[in-house]
Amino acid sequence: MSNGWIPILIRVCRAGSFMVFLNGVANVSLAQSAAGHEVRLLQPGSTAFDELLQKTPSKQPLPQIIRSAGLQGALLINDSALRIVAYAIRWRVTHNDGSATESYQSLASEPNTHGDIALTGLKALLKPGEYMFVTPGVHRTSDLGQLPLVARFPSGAAPGDQVKGILDSVVFSDGTFSGPNESRLFDRLLAERKGQIDESASIAKLIADGQPDNMVRQSLEGDIQRGRTIRGEMMRDWYVAARGRQALRMVVVLQNDGRNTLQKYATSVAEVRSRFAQ
Predict the structure, then answer these.
(1) N or C: which end of the chain has fewer CB within 10 A?
(2) In this structure, what is the dihedral angle of CA atoms 181, 43, 104, 242, given to the nearest 10 degrees?
(3) How far apart are CA 82 and CA 236, in angstroms?
(4) Residues 221, 247: contact at Cβ < 8 Å?
(5) Order of all β-strands in the sheet with 31-34
(6) Where are the beta strands (DSSP E) in the chain?
(7) How many whole angstroms separate alpha carbon 115 and alpha carbon 5?
(8) Which whole number is the average pLDDT over 95-122?
(9) From CA 32, how far away is CA 4, in angstroms rounded?
(10) Phi and psi at residue 36, in whole multiples of 5°?
């Protein structure tokens, strides 16, 4: 997706069965806390930032890292008792000429077709007490020793530009989330997971009905192509695109591991449906 967005997902719950914190994000000095969940986006320029940066594991000399112009960013800190499974940050870059640009960046774990992470956003990004350095154009790094490498990725910020991160949304392992959600993170999460489950259920049924591999592949490739044509920003658009991404994963499983493995994978994902509301 555009503006640094990647597919991410939240647990699908019945209306009213979860609590959504939409009280906004409070500015506290240079730290920004999501109301009720003790998550901070700490900006450079404070003693707390410098102290945490010094404690972060590094394979490179710290002064060299700090001097890198591409490493402007912030520290995302999880002071809550819950695991963070997805987040969205709004980056504001003020350029030397006084103009400013903004973009959203988000991250969640991807599905694993050969493991127990069957859906997007199941694996924790930050456990309680953990923190990570985040920077525009780079999703994250937990090891500052890798920062000189990722700094070569385009970030939209030139040397001398000012970069400020604003915490938009954080999704927790219990299905709650906090933040203003201007990125529409929650809606995107719902659409992504529903697309994954529905695509898997469709293929599981084709295989159970005895359809030959060429018919299964034809169905997958059709959904892949439909997903690639999506350009809209509505829930339905995100859903179709999500089905296309899931179909791509599954056609790779069919090609590399065969029909039986695909059937097991598709069935395991489809069975998740019973644990989530429709």
Answers:
(1) C
(2) -70
(3) 30
(4) yes
(5) 25-28, 31-34, 39-42, 74-78, 131-135, 138-141
(6) 25-28, 31-34, 39-42, 74-78, 84-94, 100-108, 131-135, 138-141, 162-172, 177-178
(7) 25
(8) 84
(9) 21
(10) 85, -5
